[in-house]
Amino acid sequence: MQLNHSLLNQTGTGLIEIMVAVLIISVSLLGLGALLNASLQTNQAAYARTTAATLIYDVADRIRANPTQDYSVNLTYTPPETEDTSCEVNSCSPIQMRNYDINQWLQLLQTNLTNGDASIRMIGESAIISMVWLSSSDPSEEDTNESLQIQVNI
């Protein structure tokens, strides 16, 4: 059996093989970076949607606790000025409790969702609660609004 003379003289990997391996590894790392970025954005969107749903059910519980009051508000709602009374500690009338609940809820909304806004429509024994928020807090990305609407029985 005769071996090729050039195969006997080869003792290691060539520069071309190393460059190809580095190219393959770098392209795969770039792909993993893009995948990680997409995963983080999806996770952030899911977190915002979960927060919105939690806030919707929070106000629904507040409405159920004070069923004699109309909690209807629109997206451009300006909450009424409330006294310095905290209804958590002091006794409040139903209208004071309604105003307190809405103020507290809108503060939670503004704190937890980027440019969050909401509306509540009372229809008979049910409430339609809608929320809108900015889906991206990154200034380099185009602003898009996300929304969630849930109807709950009171």
The averaged pLDDT comes out at 86
- Amino- and carboxy-terminal Cα gap: 90 Å
Structural class from helices and strands? alpha+beta
Shape: rod-shaped
**Strand neighbour order, sheet with most strands:** 1-2-3
Nearest-angstrom radius of gyration?
29 Å
Which regions contain 5 or more consecutive residues with pLDDT less than 50? Answer: none
Largest sheet: 3 strands, antiparallel
Can you give keywords for this protein?
49% helix; 3 helices; 16% strand; alpha+beta; 3 strands; 154 residues
Quickly describe the structure.
Helices cover 49% and strands 16% of the residues.
List the helices and strands and how they pair.
Layout: H1 5-9, H2 15-65, H3 94-112, E1 117-123, E2 126-134, E3 145-153
Antiparallel strand pairs: 1-2, 2-3
Describe this structure in words.
The protein is α+β, with helices and mostly antiparallel strands and 154 residues long. It has three helices and three strands. The chain has helices at 5-9, 15-65, 94-112, and strands at 117-123, 126-134, 145-153. Strands 1-2-3 form a three-stranded antiparallel β-sheet, covered by helices on one side. The radius of gyration is 29 Å and the shape is rod-shaped.
